[in-house]
Each structure stands twice: as structure tokens, then as C-alpha cells.
Specification:
The chain has 399 residues and is an alpha+beta fold. Among the domains are: 75 residues, no CATH class; 98 residues, no CATH class; 97 residues. It is built from 9 helices and 11 strands. Helix 1 runs antiparallel to helix 2, helix 2 packs across helix 3 and helix 3 packs across helix 4. The chain is elongated, with a radius of gyration of 57 Å. The protein starts with a helix and ends in a 5-residue tail after the last strand.
Length: 399
């Protein structure tokens, strides 16, 4: 920038000097009335002025070219400079293409790095899971080894007791043989007397119905008679009996009257369960009982029914048995709140097989250090069943 300005100033100054000198030389030549090539002094003065201006300009440019490299480049190296600029522009384009290609390769490497990182995280999680299983197996092995050592010590101490028990066993086996023969004889006698097939078990719920509150006595009688007729029809279908007049149901009049009294004018809806009072043998009549309860809403859908951890069952080494014990306690709790159990099984509900397996698997993953929360999947009334969801969470502070 500074060099260009300096050259510009030099050219201005030189232009002024050239004009001044040309004018002075032309004036002197004109005054002396010199002639050149036989021309008139006037024209000779003009020619001298032009030649002197050209010589001075040439000398000025020559001196500047010798003194300043930029002037030489501007005068003689401009084409070469343009060619170099074109070459540099081409190189820049090539470098830009290489840069774009490098960016694409970098993005591909970044993607590969992310994939490798993701696989590494998955491998780490799998390693943690395997390590947890290894620690669990080591604990189980330690427990089994301890039990084995105790059993081995007990074997040595009980050797004499085992010999005594073997002797007692032989005596008992002889007695069992005698009793088995007597049992076989008794069974043969029973089958000879009663050649039948059990259709219903004692305590089995034949049917259950929900009846409205504040019914009259006549309405209660009609409801109970209708339920008994339905059961009679069901039994005839099971036994392939086509006679419409056959009645396979027996109920005492006092039990029937008591049931009618419980339903008449009741303040709440009632759950009426018809229960077999004895085993039903094909060909016999069935004696039934009435099991009547208030049909109340025990748990709302989404309610937390039961919550607890497995610390209370640490004396049980098997996680499956710990979960089953927890569900058994839940069963007792639901019954205490008013959910009616099945008279035969004693259960108020059943957890689906796959759901039970999932719960046990999570308990194993947490090494038993977890909390189980039971919620109602739908509204639960007195008649049941108890349909639940079980959530397993790791206990706070456990690893």
C-alpha cells in the first residue's frame, strides 16, 4: 500500500518536472532559432520538446525499474504473476476438494467411533450382568458348602442313630405291608359298594351371583330358586340326564329360609355363593350350602394393595420360595381386608405364570435386595378374584 502511494507520488512529481523541463528546453531551442532536418525553428522546438519528454519519462521509468522490484514485476512479470495466480487458484480448488473429502472421511470415522462406543457400552452392561450372576453363584456355592459341611458333621454323629433307624425301618416296613393289604381289602369293599364317579368336590363353589340391596322376601325367594334351578340344569348336562323332572339339588328348608332372611332388606349388595356340602358321586343328589357376604368394593383400580421387601424371608435361601412366601402373605392380607378365598384352594387370586417368572427373575438380578409393590389391576370386590400387578424395585443403598 505504501509502495504504490510512493510510486504514484513519484509519477506526479516526474510529470511536473517533465512538463517544466520540456517547456524550458523548447523555449531555449525556440529562442536560439535552431533547426533540425531543415525544419523551421518552430517545429524544431516542438520536436525537441517531445524528444526530451520521452527521454526523461524513459529515464524515470528505467530508474524506478532498477531501484524498485515491484515496478519491474509490474512492467515485465505481470503475465507470469497472473499465471502463478491461476496455478494457485487451481491448487486452492484441489485443496478444497481434498478438504471436503477429508470432512466426509472424518464424519465416517465419527460414525464408526459412535458405533464402537455403543457396542462398548452394551458389552459393559453385559459384563456387569454376568458379574452379578457370578457373585450370586458364589454366594449360593458358599451356602451349599456350609450346608454340606454341617451335614457331613451330622452324618458322623448320627451313624449310630442311622443303624438304629434302619432296624426300626425294617419293623415299620413289615407293619406297612400288613396295613397296605388291609387298605386294599377295604378299598375293594368300598368300590364294591359304590361304583361311582366324583362329579363335584366338597367345598367347591358351584356358582356365585351378586344380588341387589333392599329386596323383598318374594324377590329373594325367586332369586335363590332361580340360582338352584340353574345349578340343577348344569348338573344334568354334566351327567347326561335328559329328564326335565329330575332334581339333583338338596338343600334344607332351614338353610334356605336363613338365606332368604339375609337377602331381604339388605343395606348392601350381597354376594351369594352356592357351595357343595359333600362330594357328589355320579347318580346321587348334591347337598348344597349358601355362603352369603356383603359384596363390597375392597380395592380400587391402581391402589397400592401391599408393599414390602424380602428381608423378612432371608432365612429362605431360594428366591422362588421367597417370592411365593410374599404372595402367600399378600393372600392372607387380602383375605383380612374382605376378599373371599376359594374354599378349596384358599387363594384369592392367581398370578399368571409368565408374570411370576418375570418377578422372580428381577428378584434374582437384584440379589434379593429389592422391594415389591402390589397394585390392583382393576376394581376388586369381595367376590374377587384379586387381579394384580407386581413391581420390583432395587432397595435404596443396595448395589
Amino acid at each position: 500500500m505504501f509502495i504504490g502511494a510512493a510510486i504514484f507520488l513519484v509519477l506526479i512529481v516526474m510529470g511536473g518536472i517533465i512538463a517544466f523541463l520540456g517547456d524550458r528546453i523548447g523555449s531555449k531551442v525556440g529562442k536560439k532559432r535552431m533547426t533540425l532536418f531543415g525544419l523551421r525553428p518552430k517545429y524544431t522546438s516542438v520536436i525537441v520538446t517531445i524528444i526530451s519528454g520521452v527521454l526523461i519519462s524513459f529515464s524515470t521509468v528505467a530508474v524506478m525499474a532498477v531501484v524498485n522490484e515491484n515496478v519491474r514485476v509490474a512492467l515485465f512479470g505481470l503475465s507470469k504473476l497472473q499465471a502463478q495466480m491461476n496455478d494457485l487458484n487451481q491448487e486452492i480448488k484441489v485443496k478444497n476438494r481434498e478438504l471436503e473429502k477429508g470432512k466426509s472421511q472424518l464424519e465416517a470415522r465419527n460414525k464408526e467411533y459412535e458405533d464402537v462406543t455403543k457396542k462398548s457400552e452394551e458389552t459393559s452392561r453385559e459384563l456387569d450382568r454376568v458379574e452379578s450372576q457370578r457373585i450370586y453363584m458364589e454366594r449360593e456355592l458358599t451356602s451349599v458348602q456350609s450346608a454340606y459341611d454341617e451335614a457331613q458333621a451330622g452324618v458322623e454323629q448320627s451313624a449310630q442313630e442311622i443303624r438304629d433307624l434302619e432296624k426300626t425301618k425294617e419293623e415299620l416296613n413289615s407293619n406297612i405291608t400288613v396295613l397296605n393289604n388291609e387298605k386294599k381289602t377295604l378299598l375293594d369293599n368300598i368300590y364294591a359298594l359304590r361304583e361311582g364317579q366324583v362329579v363335584m368336590q366338597a367345598g367347591q363353589v358351584l356358582t356365585s351371583v351378586t344380588v341387589d340391596e333392599k329386596m323383598t322376601k318374594d324377590q329373594s325367594v325367586k332369586v335363590l330358586e332361580s340360582v338352584l334351578n340353574d345349578i340343577n340344569t348344569m348338573l344334568k348336562q354334566q351327567m347326561n340326564i335328559n329328564d326335565d323332572n329330575v332334581n339333583l339339588i338338596r338343600v334344607s328348608q332351614s338353610d334356605f329360609d336363613e338365606a332368604v332372611q339375609q337377602l331381604t332388606g339388605a343395606k348392601h349388595k350381597k354376594l351369594v355363593r352356592i357351595v357343595a356340602a359333600q362330594n357328589l358321586i355320579r347318580g346321587e343328589r348334591l347337598i348344597v350350602d349358601f355362603d352369603i357376604h356383603d359384596n363390597l368394593l375392597i380395592f380400587n383400580k391402581g391402589d397400592v394393595i401391599y408393599k414390602g421387601n424380602l428381608d423378612a424371608y432371608q432365612n429362605i435361601k431360594n428366591y422362588e420360595l421367597q417370592v411365593l412366601r410374599f404372595l402367600k402373605d399378600l393372600n392372607h392380607y387380602a383375605q383380612s381386608k374382605g376378599v373371599l378365598p376359594d374354599p378349596i384352594t384358599g387363594n384369592v387370586g392367581v398370578l399368571e405364570g409368565q408374570e411370576l417368572i418375570d418377578v422372580i427373575q428381577k428378584v434374582k438380578e437384584y440379589g434379593g435386595q429389592c422391594e415389591l409393590t402390589v397394585t390392583a389391576r382393576r376394581d376388586v370386590y369381595s367376590q374377587g378374584p384379586l387381579v394384580i400387578d407386581v413391581k420390583v424395585e432395587r432397595k435404596a443403598g443396595s448395589l
